[in-house]
Structure formats: structure tokens, C-alpha cells
Amino acid sequence: MKLGDYRVKGKRARLGDWDTHDDGGLSKEEAQPLLAKLQEELADYQERLYAEGRQSLLVVLQARDAGGKDGTVKKVIGAFNPNGVRVSNFKVPTPEEKAHDFLWRIHAQAPRAGMVGVFNRSHYEDVLVPLVHGEMDEAAAEERLKDIRHFEALLGRSGTRIVKFYLHVSADEQKERLQARLDDPSKHWKFNPGDLAERARWDGYTGAYEACLGTSTDAAPWYVVPADRKWFRDLLVSRVLLHTLKDMDPQYPAVDFDPGAIVIE
Amino acid sequence: MKLGDYRVKGKRARLGDWDTHDDGGLSKEEAQPLLAKLQEELADYQERLYAEGRQSLLVVLQARDAGGKDGTVKKVIGAFNPNGVRVSNFKVPTPEEKAHDFLWRIHAQAPRAGMVGVFNRSHYEDVLVPLVHGEMDEAAAEERLKDIRHFEALLGRSGTRIVKFYLHVSADEQKERLQARLDDPSKHWKFNPGDLAERARWDGYTGAYEACLGTSTDAAPWYVVPADRKWFRDLLVSRVLLHTLKDMDPQYPAVDFDPGAIVIE
């Protein structure tokens, strides 16, 4: 499994180039101990990031309905110390939020130094939804994507590293997961009948996501994560996060006192 | 281990009435499987709380330095789904925060419906610190405590259940933990030389905490958690949280569609 194979390069990415059912040549049984080890390493790097208090990491999760965003938060982000994590769930904008530019509510949730911020849905919804619903033409969408590029560059220059994940599921897998929500009473609350109308716009979303993937840069790359297999999704996202944190190389800060000279009464 | 024994009743609680080294008659080995089972139950109740979306839980953590607040967040809160948790760390107030009343920044972090909010330090610091440092007399502290009672009652009537924990460590245990931070380079960043000045005010803090414990009510009880043994602290806090969530009794919401009648194309 080479991480670079899942990273979006250039502005003409096609989702069809990635196999939603990819398993990286591994079995679920082989993946389990690998994930456990990754989680330990991630927790160690997160502590360093928190201790250093100079950089931050912003994880953007996007997917179609039932694509696995919540599961990824639970399984991957769940391995981090909650003290240093803040998950932001962006829902349909409130009247107050709508009265501002689309990045206003997003900017307010940007992670402070030392923190890992997770956007469960994000500013990309403000391109995807209006584009697919025909409320915005491609030129207007391109303007928003330009705003996003500038915004992400600003964060990048200010110490925030951004990693963006598109969790890539097939139409068949989505159908199975939505059906599972209907079949299990304890999952009914997760089912939104409106999701079916969005499902019917499958190809429209494919095109809109491909437009979004064009914002992949070194400072804020997109990764397409084959997500039909949940265990592979968790493993790949964890690997990318560890790769990113290693590259950020957070250090325990130097202290301005001599630890050996201090006597505790 | 009876939870009621650790719950503060009345306005005259004395910390000396609880043994910091209490183990509830258990060994660490016996506690481990109990904690694991509690964590599963907590995760289940948290999902119900999130799904229901009507009530919220606010966990207040207070302790002396090295009392175990961060460890409790990591071990106990770490078992929750990060999607439904928000930890707020209250540090020394910024100039902007100081320009407002002391509850302004606190109120802004109150958990929304469906969420578990964790205050790692809290509004009680605004009584403890000025009281111990002689910047506020007892009458002024009593006024603030009255403000706090009103504020907590407001949250309580608005669907937020509050549980407040004082993590109770001995002076010897604090000394050991502070020394451990000096001895391990990867923990130096956690050591603040200023903590020694606070340690010297041990009895002052005892009295100030006892004043704070007077705000224990049915809707916002204080629990004194013997915390010299970390495993006992985690077990007791988890038990109290589960007890509280069971009492809140969150329910999966009814849906306004017929799951059996929906066909996914």
C-alpha cells in the first residue's frame, strides 16, 4: 500500500480511477494488529503536537451519505487524547451562518495551535450541494474553490497542516448501509429519507467531488480513500495521519528552568 | 463501593472526610475488567444521548495540580465517540475574557443538546484562585458561588445535566507526580515552576475547595473522587457517569417515516 497512490495530484482527478473495494492486498485479520500499532504511534505524535503548541492539524472528512465519516471519527480519531481534539460537525447552515460568507462559520472552528481539528463535513459542502442542486453554476463554484484555496493557504502559512479525505464508497455499498439503517431500530435515527434524493444524484456528486479534488496541494492534499471495507478505510486514514504528523515533526518544547535544580518541598 | 458515599451533601463538606488512597475494597487487577465493561456501557448511552438530541451532559473536572484531570479525560472520556464530545480547557483568562463577567467564556462552551461537554478546569477556578491568593474576600467569593448556582440551575432547567468531580490527591502523591515530571524529559513540558507556589498554599486550597463543594445540588452534584490510585479514580468517575446517564435515560428518537415502506433504488 503506497500512500502516494491514494493522493490526488493535478486538477483532473477522476474518482473512477480508484477502486472502492481496494484492500491494499491485505486481509482484515492482517490489518487489525497494524491498526493497533498505528493508533499507539498516532497517540504519541498527538501528545508531542499538543506539548509543542505551535502547529495544528486539520482533518477534513467528506463522503456521500453513509460513506463512513462518523465511523472514521469513532475508530481513527477515537485513538487520540480527547484533550487535544475538537470535532466540528457542519450541518445545514443556520440563519445567522447564512447571513455571513460561507467560510465564516468554518474559520471559527479552525484548530488552535497544538490541537487536532476534525471537520465532519466542511466548507466543501458549500460547493457540492449548490452545484449538484443547480443553485450555482460552474463559474460560481470555481470562485468558491478559489476562496477555499486562499483560505487553506492562509491556515497553512499560519501553522495548520490540512489533510482532506474523500471516503470513496460504491453505490452498492451505500445501498447496503442505508438498508441496514432501516432494518435496525437503533439505527433509524441515522436514516434521513432525503438521503435517497441525494443518492439519485449520484453522478452529479461524482462530478462535483472531482471539481473539489482540484484543490489538492502539498499543504492541503486530498486523499481518495477506498471505503467499501471499513477496516481498510481506518487503516489508510491512520497511515496518512501518521505520515503527516511525522512530516510535521512536533517536538517537546524546551523548558526555561533546570529540572535537576528544582526541589519539591 | 457505594456512589452515595462519594457524593457531597450539604454545605459543610470536609475533604478530610475522604481518604485519598481509598480503593473501594478492590485491587487494580479486579478493576480492569470492570472498567472495560463500564466503557462499553458508557459508549452505548452516549450514542443514545447523541441520537436523542434533547439533553446534554456537562462533566466538570477540578483538582490540584497533577491531580489527574488530563489522565481522567484520556482514560474515561477517551471511551466516548469523539463526535459527541467537546473538551474545554480553561486557562488563565485572556484580556478579552477578563473584560467580561467570569461566566461569559464558560457559558459559550456549554454543551449543545446531544453532546457531552467536559470542562477541564472550570468556573470554579474563578473562585478558588482569587480566594486563595487573597484577591477576593469570603463575601465576594460567596457572591460568585451564588452566581454559579444560578448559572448551573439555568443549564439544568434547559436540559443539561451537570456532574462535578473533585479529584482528591494527597500532598505526598502530588509530590511524587510533580517529581516524575521533572525526572522524565518527555514530561518537562507539563511541569510549571509556578505550581510549587500553589502547592505551598495547600491548606488555603483545601478551604477554598470546601467552599466550592457547597454548590452540590441534585441537578449539579459534586463527587469527591479519591485519586491517589489512578485506576480507582477512572473506575469511580466512570461509574458516576454511567449512573448519571442511566438516570437521564436518553431514548433513540421516533422517526416520522415508516422504515418498512422505504425502497432504496
Automatic annotation (TrEMBL), chains A, B:
GO terms for molecular function: kinase activity. Keywords: Coiled coil, Kinase, Transferase. Residues 28-55 form a coiled coil. Residues 26-251 form the Polyphosphate kinase-2-related domain. It holds the Pfam family PPK2. SUPFAM superfamilies: P-loop containing nucleoside triphosphate hydrolases. PANTHER family: POLYPHOSPHATE:AMP PHOSPHOTRANSFERASE, POLYPHOSPHATE:AMP PHOSPHOTRANSFERASE-RELATED. This is Polyphosphate kinase 2 family protein. It comes from Deinococcus petrolearius.
